[in-house]
Structure to design on (348 residues):
């Protein structure tokens, strides 16, 4: 059994998804790139963290809040960007947003979202835009402007996807199967037919400054595993570095994020915020991430699987994570997230 500290409820979520989703959508959500080595390794990698808990500390009142880019979140986890939310459940991004707002968390909205930024913003959720940049950068400007107008508080540049990695499976392209009305609705009509709309193969640190200039928002770079790249991001003005291997969906055999976190923290921690995702499946995993020094943990497949039951499923997920996180913090003698720092060691 994979050790994720969840007591089996993630398995139940997966079972529910297997029963409810069509085969191509299920495959899209669960599959990793190529042989799925990185995707499989991510789940359970957090069980390699060992705690050295404090004792004899008053843990009557536990405060799980963190501050990200100047804004308070009630919990140290947030929702990573994922496309096809409306293919998982008709509630889609709106259900994800409402449930996430109610939990006092934050949602990163994929640029491929199937719901307009204006509608997502109107839910009152704290949200950041995730963007891929096209070969012709100017083509991204309308989408970026819409996100700013709808209240995005930061822009997350995903940098691990110059091309979409090969995934084996039914061989069907999910993007050809889903109703075009429920994906990529924030792009101009005909966007994909324009020359220069393919993903940029020439992204560089200068794109960080360009994005900050166009949006006036803080820029977070998602998909960094190496300390030297983290430094380049921060030198170029990134306010946050997000340690991620895209949930094992891009370069297969990429290292686990838990093993890369410390190097990135050593390189840029203190100068920029550092986040991590990949394989986190429980409150215990979240506490491991912040105890190792991450400013917050992001969750990809977990909220997407919870969304199989619509907004209510995501409400339940946040509640469960909260229970598990408070329990782990109490047992670790940590009254605040700051108290967790330094009590964890990655072994092996
Ligand atoms: C179905 C699916 C769609 C995703 N779509 C995006 C996306 O549009 N943009 C992006 O930056 N990351 C995307 N991701 C990656 C997630 O943001 C995140 O990095 C990853 O899922 C974290 O690993 P986890 O699923 O083990 O939590 C996607 C992930 C999944 C599972």
């Amino acid at each position: 059994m994979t050790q994720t500290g969840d007591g089996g409820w993630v398995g139940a979520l997966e079972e529910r998804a297997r029963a409810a989703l069509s085969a191509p959508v299920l495959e899209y959500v669960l599959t990793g790139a190529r042989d799925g080595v990185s995707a499989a390794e991510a789940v359970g990698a957090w069980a390699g963290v060992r705690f050295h808990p404090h004792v004899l500390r008053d843990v009557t009142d536990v405060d799980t809040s963190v501050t990200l880019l100047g804004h308070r979140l009630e919990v140290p986890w947030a929702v990573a960007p994922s496309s096809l939310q409306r293919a998982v459940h008709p509630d889609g991004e709106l259900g994800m947003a409402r449930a996430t707002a109610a939990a006092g968390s934050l949602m990163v909205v994929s640029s491929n979202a199937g719901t307009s930024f204006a509608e997502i913003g109107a839910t009152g959720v704290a949200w950041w835009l995730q963007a891929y940049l096209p070969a012709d950068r100017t083509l991204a400007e309308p989408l970026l402007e819409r996100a700013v107008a709808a209240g995005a508080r930061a822009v997350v540049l995903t940098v691990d996807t110059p091309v979409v990695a090969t995934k084996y499976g039914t061989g069907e392209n999910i993007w050809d199967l889903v109703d075009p009305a429920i994906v990529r609705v924030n792009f101009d009509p005909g966007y994909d037919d324009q020359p220069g709309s393919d993903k940029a193969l020439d992204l560089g640190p200068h794109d960080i400054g360009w994005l900050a200039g166009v949006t006036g928002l803080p820029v977070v770079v998602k998909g960094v595993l190496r300390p030297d790249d983290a430094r380049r991001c921060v030198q170029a003005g990134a306010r946050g570095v997000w340690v991620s291997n895209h949930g094992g969906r891009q370069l297969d055999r990429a290292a686990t994020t838990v093993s890369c976190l410390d190097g990135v923290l050593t390189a840029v921690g203190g100068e920029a915020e550092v986040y991590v995702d990949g394989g986190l499946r429980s409150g215990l995993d979240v506490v491991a991430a912040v105890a190792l020094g991450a400013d917050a943990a992001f969750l990809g497949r977990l909220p997407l699987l919870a969304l199989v039951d619509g907004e209510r499923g995501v409400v339940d997920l946040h509640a469960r994570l909260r229970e598990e996180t408070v329990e782990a913090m109490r047992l670790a003698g940590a009254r605040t997230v700051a108290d967790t720092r330094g009590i964890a060691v990655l072994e092996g």
Q: What stands out?
A: The CA atoms of residues 242 and 345 lie 20 Å apart.
